[in-house]
Amino acid sequence: MDLLRNLTITSFRDGLLEKRFSALEVAQASFRHIREHDGEIGAFLSTAEESALREAEVVDLAVAGGENLPPLAGVPLAIKDNILIEGLPATAASKMLESYIAAYDAGVIRKLKAERAVFLGKANLDEFAMGSSTENSAFKTTRNPHDTTRVAGGSSGGSAAAVAAHFAVAALGSDTGGSIRLPASFCGVVGLSPTYGAVSRSGVIAMASSLDQVGPITKTVEDAAVLFRAIAGHDPLDATSRPDLGDLYRTIDQPKLEDVRQLTVGLPEEYFESGTDPAVTKAVERAIEKLKGLGLRFKKVSLPHTKYALAAYYIIVPAEVSSNLARFDGIRYARLAGRSGALAETYFRQKGAGFGAESKRRIILGTFVLSSGYYDAYYDKAQRVRTLIKHDFDEAFRGVDVMLTPVAPSPAFKIGERANDPLAMYLADIFTIPLKLGGFPAVSIPVDRESEGLPIGFQLIGRKWREADILGIGQFYERI
Fold first, then answer.
1. Where are the domains of the chain?
2. Stated pTM of the model
3. Is 137 a catalytic residue?
């Protein structure tokens, strides 16, 4: 356990090349730790011990042969279970896909296989990534490793818990409204939601296609930069991935202090108004004071349409959900156990049993806002508000390089506390959603802990394609 607790991507590589341990030893230790403790945490839906140990042995042979290995060679990773790995389950935490085995690799997995990363298994999530607590999973609730009576956040709660509990050195999650950054904040780890189009969505089970983005969850900001660099870049199978990233991310994990000190940080007034837990406010203020010690300049900015972001998001997302989830009819993807009666009856029975409550809620809402007579009143208006929110960010970024905000209005809440109150659950994402409507990158970084020992994170938001700015500030923040 001591070995796993201190491992980062960087220290793993150093230890592997210096032969202080082997990739196989670390992988075996990870699976022992998972067997001993994941029953309490619930981070994994499935593990892949046989293939992981086999890949670790291949990496060790390469080390022995003196090969020049990529940065992630042998690194044990947890992968959110809406990201396809050929031959492994891909359930999206839904009964609808309970027996589905992926037939191909997602774009990010192809890149990580080229890096020789080791996949420990598939991490739990809210069903089809719909939720803020990982309580919507059809199979289990993921618990916060810092306090198992509390949620790990969502929807990438399994990925964040796996890193926080030292089951995995790092993980991949997906972020639509806050699904990487919220669990990272709740679990005291780092979570990066990249610029929309920086990372391929090919082979990722879609929830809301205009917002979904894959990103890293790690123990340090430096690790987030290393893992992000490995998965970023164009994929011909994803038309939304940018083809000309060039050298933008080549040195993203090697920031220079003189460059960071040239940045101006904006503090959006709307994010610091009343309604935030005092512990979060105090923690974020401490982070600001520490960053001022780096010589960064701070400036107040305004994002006036932020107050409409949550309402617009919960019109746009259900609309896209109703479209994307239409493919899951209970007949394809191996759910059908037997068919009787008319086809329509079979569809109703299979879909009714396959989807959970939150998925049904969003499908119904999405179908309604797209329906004749309501499209203009709801969906079209929400898209117009989305444009105004993006314009707010564009205007603010004319005077600042980065913005700093809280990640969540409170630390991790109790399991069950908001399970029967969808609106209260949706409000957990009030600080993470607005920037996603404009496609901007953001990273959640741990500040410190409040009196109950719960982690609290702060959020750095960057201009599009400027992950180097927010990750650069984050890396120097860690050093102080």
1. 2-231
2. 0.96
3. no
